[in-house]
Specification:
HU Protein, Chain A; 3 helices; about 45% helix; about 30% strand; elongated
């Protein structure tokens, strides 16, 4: 499911009085709230769904798969999602 399909599903679930624009704005608000929470607190927990957490990856030495030459991989930041038990059971 992509963002457009999620918006359509939200619009259907909320009923015919809900416009596509309202569903889009609602989804954008939720996503931006998660992003803001990650920037501020570095962790967002949604009970019954899961948690998003910012993780730091250390720099390391890797290899170029074509030449085998060692290369330095820079430290980076990533977001991890851990599903709740309820979400795992539902799927």
């Amino acid at each position: 499911m992509n963002k457009a399909e999620l918006i359509d599903a939200m619009q259907t679930a909320l009923g015919p009085e809900t416009s596509k624009r309202a569903a889009t704005e609602t989804l954008d608000l939720v996503l931006n709230s998660i992003i803001g929470g990650l920037k501020k607190d570095r962790k967002v927990q949604i009970v019954g769904f899961g948690s998003f957490e910012v993780k730091q990856r250390k720099g390391r030495t890797g290899r170029n798969p074509k030449t085998g030459e060692p290369i330095q991989i820079a430290p980076s930041t990533s977001v991890r999602f851990k599903p709740s038990a309820a979400l795992k059971d539902a799927v």
